[in-house]
Fold:
Amino acid sequence: MIGRLSGTLVEKMPPEVLVDCHGVGYEVQVPMSTFYNLPSVGETITLLTQFIVREDAQLLYGFGTAEERQTFRELIKITGVGPRTALSILSGMGVTDLAQAVSLQEAGRLVKVPGIGKKTAERLLLELKGKLGADMGARTAAVNDAQADILQALVALGYSDKDAAAALKLLPADISVTDGIKQALKALAK
Structure:
């Protein structure tokens, strides 16, 4: 219903902001990743929004990027994850960190977010697999093309994403693809 707000930033009270749009003030809940990137009070801002209607409230959530909003939408589809929890996850991790945690199936990173227990973390990992970004953009946060190629080669050889990413972390950042594959295979053989 309300997809975007543009107006003057009137107040900043984490995690809420007040945006004046031609005389109408909208209270918008934002994740801390968006909050930290807001301009000063009195300046013009644009937020992508998600409007949620409940029996007892009408709530507006705002995001600085389309990726944040899409991730929020995917999170609230999961049973047991409401808008408040989704906002907490985005505030505690950010889209890239969440994507990496899901692709590597690291429940431990999700449990560190306030309000996320072990069962919820496992459900998040299961239900978000392949749904964030462009299939999580990168299976891990590959620093360069060579590392992405090494990772792809290891996965093609039958290693799990998690094992391949762990081996990739042991390699120097500037290694060639051929040498990287050799060293990663040696590390995985141990």
Q: What stands out?
A: Residues 177-189 form the longest helix (13 residues). The CA atoms of residues 112 and 185 lie 32 Å apart. Strands lie at 4-13, 16-21, 24-29, 44-53, 58-63. The radius of gyration is 20 Å.
